[in-house]
Amino acid sequence: MDDRVLHTFLELVRIDSESLHEKAVAEYVMDAARRAGFEPYMDKAGEAIGGDAGNVYVKIPSNGVEAPPVIFCSHLDTVSPGKGIVPEVAKGLVYSKGDTILGADCKAGVAVILEIMRLAGEGKIKHGPLELVFTVAEEKQLQGVRRLEWERLASRHALVLDGSGYVGDLINAAPTQDNLDFIFKGRSAHAGVEPEKGINAIYGASWAVSLMRLGRIDGETTANVGVISGGKAVNIVPDKAVVQCEVRSLDLAKLEEQKKSMIKAALEAEAAVGVGVEIKTQRAYEGFYIDEEDPLVRLVVEAGKAMGTKINIKASGGGSDANFLNAAGIKSVVLSVGVRESHTVNEIMDVEDLYRLTRLCVEIAGAAGRLRLDR
User: Does one domain contain both 43 and 21?
Assistant: First the structure.
């Protein structure tokens, strides 16, 4: 089992699959499913979002364990730079050559789910009914999971393999995220000949940002200005500037309070500088909280105990497919896959964590019938 899951992981990370370009890795997953004796299905999410592949589903019937169906989910895409990844293994760690990410976020999760599928196909593990879901464009604002064909899924419970950190970490809470766009509108003029006739939109945007509280606001709330764009040339007073921001919080009241403070900053800049400002807000995804005593959490805790791994229950500041699964009525928690420094060229994966995660998921698949997930 261990050697095979590592081999699968190394094969997966060599396959380019930056967001919206997951076709090759989706075909790898579907071919693996057929070889294991199961028939995969790909939906049309790719067509809807401008990608070259859809979400992939694999159903595995029970082999004797009476249990409600459980979903194992992970995403197929990676961030950039993720082309031409060359994985190297040394001293129990997997890393890239240094000019790309490794792609363990989330090829580690995909590799482990494929190993569970192969073990089930070989009859080497006991399990209830399993539903495997591989999403696309997770790294692009969770676009794939938004377009799942929900009617295909019988399960009301899911384990999402996508967390950073050490295997044994379980994410039972994640924030709601709202996006804010501030469009500052000024008046153009020649910057050298008659600047006094212009109204500088970038100046207005800068004024607003200078008034905003950003970064970690408190233990549950963060805010960020991620993109600023505007202007046409250094000799033209800019008549437009766009500031793109996000706010996240585990507490909806705090989310609203932070949004209001950022909007107030934009309106103060409007008054001080004389620019106009258009404000657009959009809910990116809903947060979730699963109680520590919930049967789904206890299932993971008991599975960890069976293999000697302590499960650490914690909240996260990041979003994942679990946010949309929970919003759709499928109770979901996130399991860490063991990746560190994800989204960077320094990303690494501990080989032993890959093995531990596989064993943990084997235990979960076999233990589902012993706990009342339908409670």
Answer: yes
0.85 exceeded by the pTM?
Answer: yes
| 3-state SS assignment for residue 333 | strand
Q: What total of structural domains would you count in the chain?
A: 2
* Residue 130: C-alpha distances to residues 66, 142, 160, 283, 342 (Å): 12, 23, 13, 31, 28
User: Cβ of 283: how many Cβ atoms within 10 Å?
Assistant: 10
Whole-number Cα distances in Å, 78 to 33, 108, 121, 227: 21, 11, 28, 21
Helix ranges, the chain (H): 2-13, 23-36, 45-49, 104-121, 201-211, 252-273, 295-306, 321-327, 351-367
Enter the tokens of residue 49.
């979002």
| Residue 217 CB neighbour total at 10 angstroms | 18
Active-site residue numbers? 77, 138
Same domain? 144 vs 187: no
Render pLDDT for 257-303 as a digit per residue (tens, 0 to 9).
Answer: 999 999 999 999 999 999 999 999 999 999 999 999 999 999 999 99
